[in-house]
Design goal:
Blueprint (H helix, E strand, L loop, with lengths): L1 H14 L20 E3 L5 E3 L8 E7 L4 H16 L3 E7 L7 H11 L4 E4 L2 H7 L7 E6 L4 E5 L6 H11 L18 H11 L7 H7 L9 H11 L5
Parallel strand pairs: 3-4, 4-5
Antiparallel strand pairs: 1-2, 3-6, 6-7
Helix pairs in contact: 2-5, 6-8
Bound molecules: calcium ion (CA).
The site of calcium ion has 8 residues, from helix 6.
Length: 233
């Protein structure tokens, strides 16, 4: 039985592409403490800013994307509720997404969290994905511990990820991609992490370590696959 399940898992892994929300190996683990840029008022901001917080979220956004603008409202909510977390917007700059436009928008909306312009250090990170917005959670020493290539549906979702990255715990429910369902996609992500194809993130470990062993293993993927098939609840 175990062998059969393992074969099914491997076949699924080979055949199923991971969609938005997939974690890229190259972004997680990147040291961005050397970044240097300016905020919307032209003030210098550098990588040492992360040292003031348990963890920080940096959301890469463009003014021409309504999907991005919807995230700013959520980020403001997190910023107001949690002084222990750094909340930063990082602006894509082009002819229709300028610092002036962003400043005007933030003033109109009453948003108060810091926005800085993407610099060369961050550019090498964000260019690895075509998705925007993308959010990166950064440790106090300036290393990316989690990257999220999808929109968040609520401030609570952002807060949960930040709490886990800051060392919090969660009940393992198998939903490692945080889409509200436990299904074969989650099993695949766990398997890929167990095989070191993609990096294990704090969020995935908290939600996917089904047997409580402290790490993600094929056994966890099997449990999640069985849950998704209704074999165990
Ligand atoms: Ca899921």
């Amino acid at each position: 039985m175990k062998k059969t399940m393992a074969i099914i898992l491997v076949l699924l892994m080979l055949l199923t592409p991971l969609g938005a929300g997939a974690l890229t190996r190259a972004q997680v683990g990147t040291d961005v403490s050397g970044f240097s840029s300016t905020d919307l008022d032209g003030k210098t901001i550098k990588g040492n800013v992360f040292a003031s917080y348990d963890v920080s979220i940096v959301c890469y956004f463009a003014m021409w994307s309504s999907r991005c603008l919807s995230q700013l409202e959520l980020l403001q909510q997190v910023h107001e509720a949690h002084s222990e977390y750094g909340v930063f917007g990082m602006l894509l700059v082009d002819s229709t997404s300028t610092a002036e436009l962003a400043k005007q928008y933030f003033d109109e909306k009453g948003y108060t969290f810091t926005v800085f312009l993407v610099d060369s250090v961050w550019k090498s990170v964000v260019e690895q994905s075509v998705f925007i917005p993308q959010s990166h959670i950064v440790s106090s020493d300036g290393v990316i511990v989690e990257s999220w290539q999808a929109t968040f549906s609520s401030a609570a979702k952002i807060e949960e990820r930040l709490a886990l990255c800051a060392g919090g715990t969660a009940a393992p429910d198998g939903d490692v991609n945080n889409d509200g369902k436990t299904d074969a996609t989650d099993a695949l992500i766990i398997l890929r992490m167990a095989m070191e194809i993609i990096d294990v993130t704090p969020y995935a470990l908290a939600h996917g370590d089904m047997d409580g062993s402290g790490k993600l293993e094929p056994a966890d993927a099997l449990i999640v696959l069985r849950m998704s098939m209704g074999i165990i609840i």
